[in-house]
Specification:
The chain has 969 residues and is an alpha+beta fold. It is built from 28 helices and 35 strands. The strands form 12 sheets. An 8-stranded mixed β-sheet has the order 14-2-3-6-7-11-22-21. Strands 23, 29, 30 and 31 form a 4-stranded mixed β-sheet that branches. Strands 1-15-18 form a 3-stranded mixed β-sheet, with helices on both faces.
Length: 969
């Protein structure tokens, strides 16, 4: 299946554009009448050619257009604003300095509120901003001018956070921000935990780590927290002291490992803070002789000095694979070099075309002319070359490509220096010596630099490409990353509030299916990010980093059960490998639960009931004032695990007034050892109360949730279920008699006793995550006002068992994500002639109904649809049929019919469909896995679908529920 080498001015193969790519192109990058990639490319090429000499502009415009057509992807700001009349910057991100005073400039650092104004202007023009807040004096430090105590850097970060939010609401591009604090700042612990409760939501945060600190961590030594500002009286009394002749105050000391563990634990649980290795950054910096770097841009691929900018562009590597997937597949080095040389010139031109928000930024760029040429699509390119990402052969290929890009870009910058002049702060003797990046250039290239100078102080950066990859590169894998998934469904919110679904496919996977057919097995090279070890991700960065003069955006995604010890060691390995920083993402329920701006009404800190309203109309129901954010919660097993070798079960004989039955608790020992985990309950025996088996079946799903507090709440609800007569029953372990209000309460007490033995209820550990519990909109049953409320009721009559009763659902009004009111059942009850064990089932289902994600109650009800009882089947009408159609069917039990009726009510309310599946995905349960599709993961709130499922992927935001891609690249 040999392919002809395509024209370099066309896509590598004749694949029709993906609809989502066309949509993103129009929405984010096209201007005016532009409809295609070629239209956008022509505008950008024309705009950047205006820097050239008048007689050469047409020639360079043609070359620029050819480079764009052949795979050069300028960053998003360039694509969207170049050649337009928008007063917007073409630069994606900046770093802004922040001093310690309120308004005065000190050592080139503006006062806090001056810096705030400068940042607002930068964000207003479309640029993201990074800051180092380490100069701000610590909380409690002495402020001599006002005879008061300082409030600390975190308090001022909140001011910057609100300002960013305001600028965003005014209609500008979302203002991304990075906040950095040095590891030796006295407020570092407050900074580490600043986002634990959902604060600073418009910031990414990173700790600036020094070699001194890392060495202290290795030695388990003490580490001093210091600042130039004088401590307050209380801090001096606690031991803060001045270091003679240094101008430094030591506020306190602590063990370095203790601080390191705080950083790592927060990163493990909350995905922040990130880590920047400041000494590595500055040691490698080409301009360390004239600048010091203390922060990065928001996506962290560009460490920058004060007022520095990142002028970015990426080359799509998939365009340069000849004979993809074949044994003879190869990388077209000559074509790549041709595009890289022109791309270097184009990025240099951007610095002269762009609007600068601040004159200081323009001057900084003029004197150093930093640019950041990188590549994207590495993961897909390796697949097309038949190289598995996590192998040495793949790392060797990535290293070779990176080295070729380095040499090409630096050589092209020498040519530009000969033509246009070197950057003003170039000093050959200083630039090419020491441990700086440029000192490691090949000898012949170093000699050219020494002789002719360089146009640009820095030339290379591997940045996240986000939506530019989706719009311009057929969704090629992002930056240096492997593909995250081969396909997924993008649910995009439309202008009218509805959602439209798009299939989003990875470029290499799509191309392979195009060439070889949809049923052909994938090659071994097809491996996604989550199918390889964290060490393999770090190893790829380590292979490429020596050839990139600024930094690389890389997110190491690890699974939720990734061991903490390995996670912590990953960062130590990154420092030992000489990396400049590391970002990881581990999905977890803690992250989703703390990122809601308003706390959930059912949160563990303050269980609250609904607000009681005055009932003004006949159909007015209970109303809640706000809709809390859902929390991602995965079950250990979505259904009963397959256990070919069997599993142990604990058995207890329950003795009650009407006979005896056996209670079983199924248990499974975890792979890592420790106490067995209970995962199911069932009852057996002809004298078991009717309906108790259904209760056990739904309680089994609660045993499989990773939420001990939720299980405890369920057992608490069953403990007080009263029946006609209380009774005494022998209780484990010694058979002492205990009084119970009914058989449901007795059964629950035995289950609780066994769970306590297995430590399945969490004990006294308050740090155990409670994802399901936190996802409740109300812990207790919402209460009505004195006027009452209407409820939905339906009659059930089972002639086979003689049961005739009414099912009643109390309902509550919730504000939906688009402002509409959503009515939801919040409790269920029975009245009439029914098995009293169903009161226990009603209590369990009522709690399930108050989990904000309807997928939870839908799952519980579906499990009951096939619940059968001996001699309990009967005929009844099917609910939910089209108008005018009536049909009866046989139901296996009263419980099964009740479950179907409740599902029907949810369908009437537009919450579930008639099969019991949610009409709107809200992310509490992992979605069924499609081929190559990502599972739902816990994360930040998605601005598109409202679910707490936005993770950090490939250096960019990505929603695992709806496929939303954040603004990066």
């Amino acid at each position: 299946m040999t392919q002809k080498t395509p024209s370099r001015t066309k896509p590598i193969h004749a694949l029709a554009p993906q609809p989502i790519s066309e949509e993103v192109l129009i929405e984010k990058y096209s201007k005016g009448s532009e409809k295609t990639i070629v239209d956008v490319n022509q505008r950008v090429a024309h705009a950047l050619a205006q820097v050239e000499a008048p007689e050469q502009q047409k020639q360079w415009e043609t070359k620029f257009l050819q480079a764009l057509q052949n795979g050069f992807l300028p960053a998003g700001r360039i694509q969207s604003a170049a050649g337009t009349d928008l007063a917007a910057t073409l630069i994606n991100c900046f770093v802004q300095p922040v001093g310690d005073s309120i308004a005065h400039v000190e050592d080139g650092h503006p006062g806090i509120y001056t810096a705030l104004t400068e940042a607002a202007e930068t964000m207003r023009r479309g640029g993201g901003v990074g800051y180092d807040f380490s100069r701000i004096r610590p909380r409690g430090a002495w402020v001599g001018s006002t005879q008061s105590s300082a409030s600390g850097p975190v308090s001022y970060m909140r001011v910057f956070d609100r300002s960013c939010e305001t600028v965003e609401s005014a209609g500008a591009r979302r203002g991304a921000q990075m906040g950095v604090l040095r590891c030796d700042h006295p407020d570092i612990e407050e900074f580490i935990h600043a986002k634990d409760t959902g604060d600073l939501k418009n910031f990414n945060i990173s700790v600036g780590i020094t070699d001194t600190f890392m060495q202290a961590v290795q030695k388990d030594a003490a580490f001093a927290l210091v600042h130039r500002a004088e401590p307050g009286p209380a801090q001096k009394e606690a031991g803060a002291h001045h270091v003679t002749d240094s101008g430094i105050w030591v506020y306190r000391t602590l063990q370095a490992r203790e601080l390191w563990d705080q950083i790592m634990r927060s990163t493990y649980d909350h995905a922040e803070p990130g880590v920047l290795f400041l000494d590595h950054i500055n040691r490698d910096n080409n301009l360390s002789y004239c600048e010091t770097i203390a922060s990065t841009n928001p996506c962290a691929e560009q460490p920058l000095p004060p007022y520095g900018c990142c002028c970015l562009g990426s080359i799509d590597l998939t365009r340069f694979i000849k004979q993809p997937f074949e044994k003879a597949a190869s990388f077209d080095k000559a074509a790549f070099v041709e595009v890289a040389r022109v791309a270097t010139r184009m990025l240099d031109n951007v610095l002269d075309v762009t609007v600068w928000p601040l004159p200081q930024q323009q001057e900084e760029a003029r004197s150093k002319r930093r640019i950041g040429l990188g590549y994207t699509g590495l993961g897909d390119a390796l697949v097309m070359l038949n190289l598995r990402y996590d192998t040495q052969a793949a790392r060797d290929m990535a290293r070779d490509i990176s080295e070729l890009m380095r040499d090409t870009a630096y050589d092209a910058s020498v040519d530009l220096a000969q033509e246009r002049g070197a950057f003003p702060l170039f000093n050959a003797d200083l630039y090419l010596t020491g441990q700086r990046f440029a000192s490691r250039l090949p000898p012949a290239l170093k000699e050219r630099v020494r002789t002719h100078g360089l146009r640009n102080s820095h030339l290379l950066s591997i940045a996240p490409t986000g939506t530019i990859s989706l719009a311009f590169a057929d969704n090629a894998s992002n930056g240096i990353e492997p593909a995250f998934s081969w396909s997924y469904t993008r649910k995009k919110r439309m202008a009218d509030g509805s959602f439209k679904e798009y299939a989003v496919e990875d470029h290499a996977w799509r191309l392979y299916r195009h060439l070889y057919g949809k049923d052909t097995a994938l090659t071994p090279a097809f491996v996604t990010a989550l199918e390889m070890s964290a060490q393999a991700h770090e190893a790829m960065v380590a292979a490429v980093a020596p050839f990139i003069d600024t930094a690389i955006s890389k997110t190491v995604n690890v699974p939720v059960n990734y061991p903490y010890a390995d996670f912590q060691n990953l960062y130590m390995e990154a420092w030992q490998s000489g990396l400049k920083g590391l970002a990881t993402y581990r999905p977890n329920s803690v992250l989703g639960s703390v990122l809601s701006v308003t706390p959930a009404l059912g949160s563990s800190s303050a269980p609250a009931a609904a607000t009681a309203l005055q009932i003004d109309s006949a159909n007015q129901r209970l109303a809640l004032e706000r809709l809390p954010a859902a929390v991602l919660s995965s079950l250990r097993w979505p259904s009963r695990p397959e256990l070919p070798a069997g599993n142990p079960a604990w058995t207890f004989m329950v003795h009650h007034p009407f006979g005896d039955f056996a209670l079983f608790v199924g248990e499974l020992a975890p792979e890592e050892g420790g106490a067995p985990k209970p995962f199911e309950v069932w009852v057996n025996g002809t004298e078991q109360p009717r309906g108790l088996g259904a209760l056990a079946k739904t309680l089994s799903m609660d045993l499989r949730a990773n939420d001990p507090a939720w299980l405890q709440l369920k057992l608490d609800a069953l403990a007080t279920v009263a029946e006609e007569h209380s009774f005494e029953m022998p209780f484990p372990p010694h058979g002492q008699l205990r009084l119970f209000p009914g058989v449901v309460a007795a059964t629950a007490a035995v289950i609780r006793w066994r769970c306590d033995q297995l430590t399945a209820l969490g004990g006294n550990d308050t740090k155990v995550p409670t994802p399901v519990l936190d996802a409740m909109f109300s812990r207790g049953e919402p209460q009505t006002g004195p006027s009452g409320t209407l409820a939905w009721s339906v009659d059930v009559d089972n002639p086979a068992t003689g049961e005739a009763f009414t099912v009643t659902l109390k309902e509550v009004n919730l504000p939906g994500p688009d402002g509409a009111i959503v009515t939801r059942p919040c409790s269920v009850g029975f009245s009439g002639n029914y098995p009293r064990a169903l009161d226990g089932l009603a209590r369990l289902l009522s709690l399930d109904m108050r989990v904000i994600d309807p997928a939870w109650i839908g799952m519980k009800l579906r499990k009951l649809l096939n619940y059968a009882e001996p001699l309990g089947h009967f005929m009844a009408f099917v609910p939910g049929l089209p108008r005018g159609e009536r049909r009866q069917q046989t139901w296996p039990s009263t419980v099964a019919y009740v479950a179907r009726l409740i599902i029907h009510r949810y369908a009437m309310l537009g919450v579930l469909d008639e099969e019991g599946f949610p009409l709107r995905d809200m992310g509490v349960l992992d979605a069924p896995k499609n081929q190559g599709a990502p599972s739902t993961m816990a994360g930040k709130i998605c601005p598109e679908c409202g679910n707490p499922t936005v993770i950090h992927k490939d250096g960019c935001d990505f929603c695992t529920a709806c496929g939303y891609v954040g603004q990066c690249g």
